[in-house]
Amino acid sequence: MGLEPAVVPLFAITGVAGPPVEAARYDAVLLTSANGARHAPAGLTALPCFAVGESTAAAARAAGFAEVRTGPCDGAAAAAMMAGAGIERALHLCGRDHLAVEAPGVEIERRIVYAAEPIPHERFEGPAVAMIHSARAAARFARLAGDKAAIAIAAISASAAAAAGEGWAARAVAAQPRDQALLELAAKLCNHGLDVVRDGDGL
To answer: Quick one: 143 exposed, middle or buried, by C-beta within 10 A (0-12, 13-18, 19+)?
Structure first.
């Protein structure tokens, strides 16, 4: 896309061990992160898997899940899909820091399978466009940023944009909570300058 990316992980992902899982207790598996798939306990891949986003669905297939259904936007939407499919009991494989997902008629049990621990960083300086994938990453990046007026925020969701706070050169939300939409937003900010939108405005 003509961009010069700098991949800067803010967290290190580590697996969290736990007791074996009895797959027979569940009708499906819920994945709200690709890391949930990468650290999934053994014995679950025969269950239907409901994943949030294409990258999570791809990670689920790579982990061996044969039946993967991709939710349209977030955990709540994926849970609603499960309810519509007649799922009564699901296992949510999630991180230590997570949002509880619920849906009427579906009993969702949470199992923490990974943790995201902060990585030490120096201050981040602009000019740059920062692609933000979560509210937690947004809050941490805001603490690490130098001159915010030289950095534009491209956020994958409204909650991530809100967590970044104010004072940025620009702050906008992707049209859809998808990596491709986030890349398109970042390209627009890069190619047309940091004054494409004012702080707090959308594109």
So the answer is: exposed
Task: Write out the two tokens for 193.
Answer: 């300058």
Tens digit of pLDDT for each residue in 144-161? 999 999 999 999 888 899
Distance from the Cα of residue 135 to its chain's centroid:
9
Tell me how far apart the alpha carbons of residues 106 and 202 are, in angstroms, rounded to a whole number: 35
146: helix, strand or coil: coil
List, in order of start, the domains of the chain with CATH numbers: 11-117 (3.40.50.10090), 128-192 (no CATH)
Q: What pLDDT, on the 0 to 100 scale, is given for residue 194?
A: 54
Mean pLDDT of 47-75: 88
For residue 80, the model assigns a pLDDT of 87
Three-class SS of 70-122: EECCCHHHHHHHHHHCCCCEEEEEEECCCCCCCECCEEEEEEEEEEEEECCCC
Query: Rounded to an integer, what distance in angstroms lies between the CA atom of residue 57 and that of residue 36?
Result: 11
Q: How is residue 47 written in tokens? A: 């269950």
| The predicted structure's pLDDT at residue 198 | 46
Over the chain, what is the mean pLDDT?
A: 88
At residue 12, φ and ψ (nearest 5 deg) are: -100, 130
Angstrom distance (rounded) from CA 186 to CA 173:
10
